[in-house]
Every structure is written in C-alpha cells, then in structure tokens.
User: Fold this.
Amino acid sequence: MIGSFCFYISNKHFNLTIMKKLFFALFSAIALFMFVGCSSPKTPGDTVLGYIEMIKDADYDKLVDEMYVKEGAPADQVAEVKSGIKSMLQDKMSKQVEKKGGIKDAVIEKEEISEDGTTASVKVKITYNDGSEESNNWDLKKSGDDWKWTLNK
Assistant:
C-alpha cells in the first residue's frame, strides 16, 4: 500500500515535470515564430555581406544561385551562363582571395535603393588577412522579397 502511494506521488511529480517542460518548449516555439515573423526583411547591404561570406567560404554554387535571372529566360541558357560565371569566379576570385590570405572583414560603405525599390547599389569595403583593402560595388535587383545580385541593373 505504501509502495503504490509512493509510486503515485513520484508519478505525479514526473507528470508535472513533463508538463512544465512541454509548456516551456511550446512557449519558446511561439516566441521564436513571433520573433521571426516580426523581423524586418534583409536590406541590400545585409544581402551583400551574405555574398561576401559565400566568397569567403568558396561557396560559388550558392553565390551563382543567388544571381538575378530575368523571368522567362530559357533554362538551358541560364544554366550555361551560370556555369560560365561560376567557373570564372572559382578561377579568378578564389585565386585573388587566396593570394591575399583570405577575407578578414567586410563593411558596407554605401547603400542606395532606387525610388521604386526594385534595384539597389551597395559599396562594400573588403579587408583581407594580408592587410590590404578594396572597395567593390554590387548591383542588386529585387526578386520577390529577396535581393539578388546582377551583372547590371
């Protein structure tokens, strides 16, 4: 009789512990969704800094996937152009970054969004591990809610 009473009490404690953990997990998930849902969209500068991280990681596949492609462009031509750009990036950019010891930091110097909000220009200063710096301009075009880099506006 005492054993079953102790089991009842410990089982009840166990259930309360589980309920507290489930409540905390549910509350955390709701808070996360609210935070993500209320976060502001990426700016063109944030997008370019993401591109610099892709270059830093030599993730040229992902970088090329982020390139703006005009709607209705033939898929075979798009694939061919993207393949050529990826090859060029891997060949030239990776050698340049490697020669300078890798990318240390990138800072947005200037960000301009067109009046109609469909294009942007971002000037970013890249600091390399060898101490050298260079500024680059990135042209971006709005695609849905995202900014995509483009070879021209």
Summary: The mean pLDDT is 83. The CA atoms of residues 126 and 134 lie 5 Å apart. The first strand starts at residue 103 and ends at 113. The radius of gyration is 25 Å.
